[in-house]
Amino acid sequence: MYAEGVAVMAGRIRDEDIALVRERTAIADVISEVVTLKSAGGGNLKGLCPFHDEKSPSFNVSPARNVFYCFGCGVGGDAIKFLMDAEHLSFVESVERLAARAGIQLRYVEDDRSTPRPRPQQGQRQRLVAAHAAATEFYRAQLTTAGARPAREFLAGRGFDRAAAERYGCGFAPDGWDLLTKHLRQQGFTHDELVTGGLSRPARSGSLIDRFRRRLMWPIRDITGDVIGFGARKLFDDDDGPKYLNTPETPIYKKSHVLYGIDQAKREIAKQGKVVVVEGYTDVMACHLADVPTAVATCGTAFGGDHISVLRRVLFDSDERAGEIIFTFDGDAAGQKAALRAFEDDQRFVGRTFIAVSPDNMDPCELRLAKGDLAVRDLVARREPLVDFALRHVISRFDLDTVDGRVEAMRRAAPLVAKIKDREKRPEYVRKLAGDLGMEIEPVQRAVLAAAHGPQAGSAPAAPARSRPASPAVDSPRSMVEREALKLALQEPVLAGPMFDAVEATDYQHPVHVAVRAAVAAAGGASGATGGAVWIERVRDACDDLAGQALIGELAVEPLRIDGEPDPRYVSITMARLQWSSVTGRIRDLKSKIQRINPVSNKDEYFALFGELLSLEQHARALREQAAGGL
């Protein structure tokens, strides 16, 4: 649950506008910017959960009801909740972003809900994103000035014309202490916003100065396309700073999560099931322009676990569809070391990992400049499995003409073979390693088996999933019928509402199901609901049971147990079976009670109970006939 109408500055968003945002937001469009979604049948979609690591997709989206739910970690809700969890936004920031996306003008009221007021100050994230967008335009305009000639020459010298510079938003930070700062302050951004966003920094004098000066600038965008930071390349010899300078960690820029070029590459990555990981901004540009549109790069940090999580969601890297991850590292010592680090992360991917190294040790940008676009495409096409590269690199460090060298090489290489995800490939690599070492296969096999059972072969542990609230058992027939009835109320209230509401809450047995049934009633009943995310959130808000809240999200996306669309007959059968289970239980209790009564000394009670039993059995027969055909 999350609070609605949260106070912002002096007012709150009107409830009607929040409901309108929910109704007009296509949740699949919002989530597909972060997670690649595939058809899951019944109109639902599925993908890899962005909130916990998993190998098989358990994250479900229901476009018809505008809700999502992960059966792996129990997180669920509507598009507002998704943005809150995925982007770490407040409720109000999420509503405002979705409203802007849908073209909805939000109205705000005072705390007493009296007079509507103009839009208040935006949330922090929106303000920082807006500041970065303004900075991007400022830097782009500066690229055409006389002082930016070294920046233009740098781009041209690497094969990038004006159109390429504009496509990637390249710019120039001018030679002035506070030109950007003054420009942004004039646009209404505050001292604290510029410092918090990493665009400006305090000088020794106490005044505010620009963080970037006299550098070629690349805007760094998140997966949705918002500019959240900058990469700045040194151009002048008298610049004492590092070759590349990046935005520091800020509320919107987390370098361990950011991949340069992901906003432009994500659709092709999802389409091709392939990603090419390069080392720099110019390499991404070169690959994209050479028709390798799946290239991305890290931003001032090593490729790590958070980057892997982002790529796996975009790749749909799962047991159902293993992707390809291709690393392009320089052939020098640093590049080889980076490649071996990448192999350590291989276990985190379901898909296959490869490496592409230019024979001339050139990066993609240099290769394109020297030999053209075709050479870049060939570099990627000639990739080799990362394990082959890693084994060759390890073996090359030892003198295989000596016994000690061969044995030591075997000891170092065996753990790499033991880490190969595809167990069926391990015997082949054992034979290959034995051949490369010039040794018999048996000692190599023993070394690999020993490594597989030792600590060296352990893969990096997956990030722990969020603790999932206890959910009701689904294996008993009665529980399944109760779930189906609740799903109909949540997913199809217009169709099922009257029949659902007519069945008493006492016909539900499981305590969590009872809590959800009570929440439906507290939300006004299913009969008057129109469905969708607004209805589901109303029921969730009316439920004061934590397990019930989690179950509501689950049932909102769980497919109904019917092929095709539900109809009134299906609803009637479901509700009849629900009541029949309850009635037969009461019949058993009555029969047990009657057997314990002495009909002579308790004649009145005996005949009263017997009459009730006959009535219940008649009712049960009618329900059984109504439920004929089964679920």
From TrEMBL:
Enzyme class label: transferase
InterPro entries membership: DNA_primase_core_N_sf (IPR037068), DNA_primase_DnaB-bd (IPR019475), DNA_primase_DnaG (IPR006295), DNA_primase_DnaG_DnaB-bd_dom (IPR013173), DNA_primase_Znf_CHC2 (IPR036977), DnaG_bac (IPR030846), DNAG_N (IPR013264), DnaG_primase (IPR050219)
Alphabetical list of PROSITE patterns matching this protein: TOPRIM
Keywords: DNA replication, DNA-binding, DNA-directed RNA polymerase, Magnesium, Metal-binding, Nucleotidyltransferase, Primosome, Transcription, Transferase, Zinc, Zinc-finger
Zinc finger residue ranges, CHC2-type: 49-73
Region (Disordered): 452-477
GO cellular component: a single term: primosome complex
GO process terms (BP): DNA replication, synthesis of primer
Free-text domain note: Contains an N-terminal zinc-binding domain, a central core domain that contains the primase activity, and a C-terminal DnaB-binding domain.
Name assigned to this protein: DNA primase
Organism of this sequence: Micromonospora tulbaghiae
